[in-house]
């Protein structure tokens, strides 16, 4: 029997009476990488924001370790949604120091997370001078400060060059061996295919598939099938 770290059941969220997420039920095994795929505007970010406590669901439930989600669960979750929350005039270490002080975490975590994301060499270079890939890795370092068991990454490959993508891909692959479960959202099929253990495909706010990762043309065909079904039902507009 699989050890499940996170479950959502019939999760719903609307904005101005327009459904954004409609009865989404996810099952995330512990120490895995779960890829949440979908077109832009499919409901991926809204789903992740509800899990991260940034949005309140209209209905449905979220369970972590078999228990109903509460604010206390945030101490076990790391989140990088949208742009990394960086002070661009500060160095990597200074950015992390601000967070350790605000969270009451030990100063030793700074060097630990910098080593994990391979940013120990950045010295006095300010975050505003970092490449996009370095900024993403610093954002992940911030998300790792509280030693989360669950790490939520929303479109982390966006805007990265091929080298940045490769570095981030290798970093994400390393997390399950460190006891960190990853939920990774993306609309880039090939990237999720290369890192995910399981996937969910969402379109028009509806989860159309959840399970093993098909490869190559099979994944593309499945993705298009889910997106087409959502369009036929009138929940997605081209």
Automatic annotation (TrEMBL):
**Stored PROSITE patterns:** ABC_TRANSPORTER_2
Q: What SMART domains does the entry give?
A: AAA (SM00382)
Q: Which InterPro entries match?
A: AAA+_ATPase, ABC_Gallidermin_ATP-bd, ABC_transporter-like_ATP-bd, P-loop_NTPase
Q: Report domain ABC transporter positions.
A: 6-229
* Matches recorded under Pfam families: ABC_tran (PF00005)
Q: Which family does it belong to?
A: Belongs to the ABC transporter superfamily.
Cited NCBIfam families: galliderm_ABC
Query: What protein am I looking at?
Result: Bacitracin transport ATP-binding protein BcrA
Phylogenetic placement of the source organism: Bacteria, Bacillati, Bacillota, Bacilli, Bacillales
